Amino acid sequence: MPSATGFTPPAADCRLCVRLAEYRDANRAANADWFNGAVPSFGPLDARLLVVGLAPGVRGANRTGRPFTGDYAGMLLYATLLKLGFATGAYKADPQDGMTLVDCRVTNAVRCVPPANLPTPAEISACNPFLQQELAAMPRLQAILALGGVAHKAVLRARGLRASHADFVHGKLHSLPDGLILADSYHVSRLNTNTGRLTAEMFEAVVAELKDRLRA
Predict the structure, then answer these.
(1) Are 140 and 46 in contact (CB under 8 A)?
(2) pLDDT digits over 164-197, tens only?
């Protein structure tokens, strides 16, 4: 259903991408009690900060129906948002944990779980209009945090910019032509944190800098 702003999120059983729809169908057959759909964004549309990830994890958001909820990636993301005041409550890896986002919204570049956590370029393109509409429906949006290169490029595309407009560099804050700030961070995945490519301190520093740049 469209929101009051006119933004229409993808239907839970979105069939735009045949491969992703068939993968969801297979997961639904094996796990009927899972969400198994296009995962909706989490947080208020009037937030000043939007966090954009890659795609739902099969045992994370695809299972629970809330971005970054139920697998390892959500632990660092939501712990940091809670610490810096972008969330209240407690993250317990469950959509019913009562955690609330404050002045922050979380979504993904691709709303449906891809096999092996890897969406194709065509799937990323097919989902991009939803991100474009969502950005347009956020009247107070000032900053976007892209988790990884795919999210970074998806945000640029959603704002009508070429991928070459700004290179993905962890920790860098880009000023886009429309006044938005695009900040880059390595994805909060288990792979990146286990290898030390991304530490909690590194991620917190990016989010803290973004918070300092937000205008009242």
Answers:
(1) yes
(2) 999 999 999 999 999 999 999 999 999 999 999 9
Contact 108, 55 (CB under 8 A): yes
Is the separation of the CB atoms in 184 and 171 below 8 Å? Answer: yes
**Of 8 and 23, the one with more pLDDT:** 23
Cα(87)–Cα(211) distance, integer angstroms: 13
The residue with tokens 């939501």 is 78
Within 10 Å of residue 190's Cβ, how many Cβ atoms? 14
Please give the full DSSP string across 158-191, using - where no structure is assigned: HTT--GGGS---TT-EEE-TTS-EEEEE----HH
Q: Spell out the long-range contacts of 82-88 with Cβ–Cβ below 8 A and sequence spacing 24 or more.
A: 83/204, 84/204, 84/207, 84/208, 84/211, 85/211, 86/49, 86/207, 86/211
Tokens matching residue 206: 């990016």
68 and 80 Cβ atoms separated by less than 8 Å: no
Instruction: Report the percentage of the chain scoring pLDDT > 70.
Output: 97
* Contact criterion met (CB below 8 Å) for 183 and 145: yes
d(CA 127, CA 111): 7
Task: Please say whether the beta carbons of 183 and 206 come within 8 A.
Answer: yes
> Is the C-alpha dihedral spanning 150, 151, 157, 160 positive or negative?
negative
Q: What is the pLDDT of residue 16?
A: 96
175 Rama sector, left if φ>0, alpha if ψ -120 to 50, beta otherwise: beta
How much is the pLDDT for 7? 84
